[in-house]
Description:
Elements: E1 5-7, H1 11-18, E2 30-33, E3 38-43, E4 52-58, E5 74-76, H2 84-92, E6 94-99, E7 101-108, E8 111-119, E9 125-133, E10 139-147, E11 158-160, H3 168-171, H4 179-185, E12 194-198
Parallel strand pairs: 4-10, 5-10
Antiparallel strand pairs: 1-2, 1-7, 3-4, 6-9, 7-8, 8-12, 9-10, 10-11
Amino acid sequence: MCGRFALFSRPPAVSRWLGLPEPEAAWQPRYNISPGTWIAGICRPEPDAEPRFDRLWWGYRPHWAGQSGPEPINARAERLDTSKYFRGAFHKHRCLIPADGWYEWKPAEGGKQPYFLCREDRQPLFLGAIWERYADETACCAIITEPARGIARDIHDRMPLVLDDDSLAAWLDPALTEREAIRSAVHHLDAGTLTVWPVSTRVNRVAHEGADLIEPVTL
Length: 219
């Protein structure tokens, strides 16, 4: 799954990486981003609009589901095209979530040990996600997960869908609406470019923040 991540790269750096204008509202570095909060995303507000940065609520509940509908934070890649809850957004409302890395927890003696996963070159990651508008024109999202690959598999059986750099434009392309066309044009990041290390259990509490959360610890 993907239930916690970090984004501390500054908006200009992320904008340049994507070739997009900077967001109107700059985000502050966050090292312990949790569900049920507003996060930065990149999406097309309309099919004929250019991609742009937007604020997205991490917790996906389409307006048609009503207030009693579930609010998942993740959507399994295997179910995107078959689930009524996700299918429409997968075809028409795909977005990117910028991140510098994400956390996973591995069972260990005395409890679960958190790990931080990121690119070896420390460049930003872009997580595949889906989004939907609320009635008030704000939007919500869910991060897509897939079976873990490479070193991530040693920590957890699931991981976020991390897209390779050449797939970012295609993921946001409104002309790609069918599953096979999307799968042909979009590829996940090579798992060999990822690295991982153990971090402090301070990250377990969402109230904790700061760069020290991603510092390696000795086990």
